[in-house]
Amino acid sequence: MADAKVIPFDDDRSRTGGSARPARRRSAAGGVRGQGTGPAAVSALPGQQDASKPQEEPERAGRPLGRDERAGWDRRIAGGLAFLRRRVTGEYDVDEFGYDEELTDQVLMSMLRPVYEKYFRVEVKGIENIPSEGGALIVSNHSGTLPLDGLMLQVAVHDNHPAGRHLRLLAADLVFVLPVVNELARKAGHTLACAEDAERLLRRGEVVGVMPEGFKGIGKPFGERYKLQRFGRGGFVSTALRAGVPIIPCSIVGAEEIYPMIGNSKTLARLLGFPYFPITPTFPWLGPLGAVPLPTKWTIQFGEPISTAGYPVEAAEDPMLMFNLTDQVREQIQHTLYKLLVQRRSVFF
Amino acid sequence: MLVTGAARQLGGRFVRRIQRDPGVDRVIAVDAVAPGPELGDAEFVTADIRQPAIARVLAEHSVDTVVHLDVSAKAVGTGSRTMVKETNVIGTMQLLGACQKAPSVRRLVVKSSTNVYGSAPRDPAVFTETTPPKSLPSGGFAKDVVEVEGYVRGFARRRPDVAVCVLRFANILGPRADSPLADYLSLPVLPTVFGYDPRLQFVHEDDVVDVLGVASGEPGRGTLNSGTFNIAGDGVLLLSQCSRRLGRPTVPLLLPAVTWVGQALRTFAMTDFSPEQIRLLTHGRVVSTVQMRETLGFHPRFSTAETFAEFARSQGPGLLPPEVVGRAVDRLAAMPFAGAGGDVPGTTGAGDTEPTPSAR
């Protein structure tokens, strides 16, 4: 996916979220930033800021190195070697969930960023709705056959939030059964979607992301795109209430079309132990090539936070209130989805 | 005070330590075999806790505190698994039966293990004392522990006047550790399960002895030492971190292959590679120690990482000591490259950025 097709697009819409791109956390490269990047790169992505360009670009364009740039490189190299040294000697820390912040920042995010920036060209709106400190529960719609929307949401929060907050996603138990996937998920800070883990994270003041539609949302047929499914049993609301954190509704547009699921082979799914087995116009007919997602244009909008601070503790035990709050969150996400869909010019641009 | 399992390394250390406690008059150490280490002034009684004779020992010495440490995953010397299970389960039953008949008993401390929680992908990331296990362990030491705790709960119900303290220890490690996990980590090359990097927690032997002292004495001010407590050092280590810090290379194997290798290793008596240990090395296990700190009032001296460092020091360097690997990286940094102007970061297979350095 590294050799993503960069589709030039002429973006004339207003970008509420994109205009205020914060400084990136790669502070080691501070000397290079702001000196202007290769002109070719800028014209390919007019909507993006210079700071978001990978630092290799000026080198590839063959520009002579300035003194500052050389110093920046030296620092980068020293940082990279120190990082490598820490990794090979095992001198790094993970938290009780197995979250490896260093690996996530330096490696996993760097691997996802090209997909995020170049392939899906994610546009983020309303990032200011995520508080700079303290816990918050981001509730989002779920779609796209493979949970790429969760990963993109993680990059969106990580790269755009001024306080550099890290999103901790709650994942289905299937993720933790599969080898490799479970290892990477734990290291990226994901954990099992259960009330205990969610509450523990929220009480520690983390931003937690949850997609309450679960497999019903991600594995729904193409014809039902952008129709929100049932939001589980609303457990996320009572967890947020108990932890006293705001709920931030989040709508993701674009993920529905990456794998248009036109069929579902129940037999194969049962055989493999998966909740569904997608059949798209390309998969499984073209083999691994058919698993390449369509390069749709994404928009992620964070909505106004819904405060839970006003409720008493015992409110978490009130099923009626839970249903009402769940519906309120669901309605808000659905409404925003329709609004974004009306604004969207085309699926791919 | 009566201590079972005194012939073991841990039991012996606890017996020696508790004699120095001014509140303890007499220590009676019990085990089926003669103790290896010196027990000091403690009175050693050779008694098999699987036999009813243990009741006589309790009555004869009018014991007030029973510390039951004879719950282990590993046999002393060359005992078979059946023997271990007998000692764990039948031994506990007999001992508790004897305690129930002994009116002098006021306090019971049982060594348990965090194995009771099992290890499954569907479990929450952190276990608290009240978390019910999603899948009960089907056999092996974990099942023993579940049964032992069941009997202890029954005893606590029948003798409400006895203060019962169950200590669930995470993996015990240290310079003299004697556990299946320590054996595993002593292998020159560590077989791991491909695609899984389990989270592990360790507790130092010294902390184990200390917390047993806390649990077997009178509770301190503002604390309570009856109930069930998880005992573990702070922090978490991944198995990959452990292998790198030990300097022992890992061999990732697919899950069925790990079972075969485990069987082969068991046949050659190199380590007890039981199914539950494979589950631990697949999914890992982390417990919450809030109760230990706030209710029991015990603060371990060693964190998980420090415990592991102590263990690694006692093991000697592995095949790839971290110092050597670290020096190799430093040499890479010092290597002068010609034409430093065009350096572009390259990536290694692991995805780690490894830029070629430029001349200063």
UniProtKB/TrEMBL annotation, chain A:
Composition-biased stretches (Basic and acidic residues): 53-69
Query: Sorted alphabetically, which CDD domains does this protein's record hold?
Result: LPLAT_MGAT-like (cd07987)
What keywords would UniProt list here?
A: Acyltransferase, Transferase
Question: Region Disordered: what ranges?
Answer: 1-69
Q: Does the keyword Amino-acid biosynthesis apply?
A: no
Which Pfam family, any one, appears in the UniProt record?
Acyltransferase
InterPro entries in alphabetical order:
Plipid/glycerol_acylTrfase
Q: Which domain of life is it from?
A: Bacteria
Q: Does the keyword Nucleotide-binding apply?
A: no
- The Phospholipid/glycerol acyltransferase domain covers which part of the protein? 136-255
Q: Which GO terms describe its cellular component?
A: membrane
- SMART domains in alphabetical order: PlsC (SM00563)
**Single annotated GO MF:** acyltransferase activity
Q: What is this protein called?
A: 1-acyl-sn-glycerol-3-phosphate acyltransferase
Q: Which organism is it from?
A: Streptomyces atratus
From TrEMBL, chain B:
The UniProt entry, under Pfam families, shows:
Epimerase
Lineage: superkingdom: Bacteria
Q: Spell out the residue ranges making up region: Disordered.
A: 338-360
Q: Which residues form the NAD-dependent epimerase/dehydratase domain?
A: 1-222
Identification of the protein by name: UDP-glucose 4-epimerase
The organism named in the record is: Streptomyces atratus
